[in-house]
Design a protein that fits this description.
Blueprint: H1 3-31, E1 33-35, E2 39-45, E3 48-59, E4 64-73, E5 79-87, E6 96-100, E7 106-108, E8 110-113, E9 117-123, H2 126-134, E10 137-143, E11 149-155, H3 159-164, H4 174-192
Antiparallel strand pairs: 1-3, 2-3, 3-4, 4-5, 5-9, 6-7, 6-10, 8-9, 10-11
């Protein structure tokens, strides 16, 4: 075996090992992830109401693997934004690929990256909303820094109900309930004169 052949063989083995590791990591990420389902939140701001119809896929350690948001701002700052959030370490040139029901993929360009996430954005159109309402599944694919695609499946089941319906009631966690209970107890003690406000 020539020196060139040895290096070629070693390079091929290294590439194969990297691909296997990447596939295993991708499979592991799918196994250790949980999805939120489609929800809608609305908040009143100084410039008007902001509603966000969203779906998140989060790893068991809390890292966002993919988040899809359809944001609508009413009032003075009227604006409609379609945003996809993925982890950092992405190849930015290709954008994020969006594919509904296995049809032609569309690229959504990256708008910004922060220390833990990168976000791709486009204008939210009525056509996109119609496609989501008629669709059954969505695949969001970002390309990692090694050039490997990281597809994340997202169900469109529940999208129409979330988009057309009222804001979703989000159950409170233990910390929020505890905080509210303490606040209520403090208010009762203030009213009864047991403690005085300064």
């Amino acid at each position: 075996m020539t020196r060139f052949s040895k290096y070629t063989t070693l390079f091929a083995l290294a590439c194969t090992a990297t691909m296997i590791t990447s596939v295993q990591a991708s499979a592991q990420a799918k196994i250790n992830a949980r999805a939120s389902g489609w929800i809608k939140t609305c908040n009143e701001g100084a410039a008007g109401e902001v509603c966000n119809v969203q779906y998140q896929v989060v790893s068991n350690d809390g890292q966002i693997l993919t988040a899809v948001s359809l944001v609508e701002l009413s009032g003075d700052a009227k604006r409609r934004i379609f945003r996809i959030v993925v982890p950092t370490g992405r190849s930015l040139q290709q954008g994020v690929q969006l594919q509904v029901d296995g049809k032609q993929a569309t690229a959504v360009p990256y708008a910004f990256c922060r220390p833990r996430i990168c976000a791709a954005e486009a204008a939210l159109t009525d056509d996109l909303v119609k496609i989501f309402k008629a669709g059954g599944s969505l695949e969001i694919t970002s390309i990692n820094f090694q050039g490997q695609p990281n597809p994340i499946p997202v169900t469109l089941k529940g999208f129409t109900a979330a988009y057309d319906g009222p804001p979703t009631e989000i159950p409170k966690n233990d910390a929020q309930e505890s905080q509210e209970k303490l606040k209520k107890q403090l208010e009762e003690k203030l009213k009864s004169g047991e403690i005085k406000a300064d």
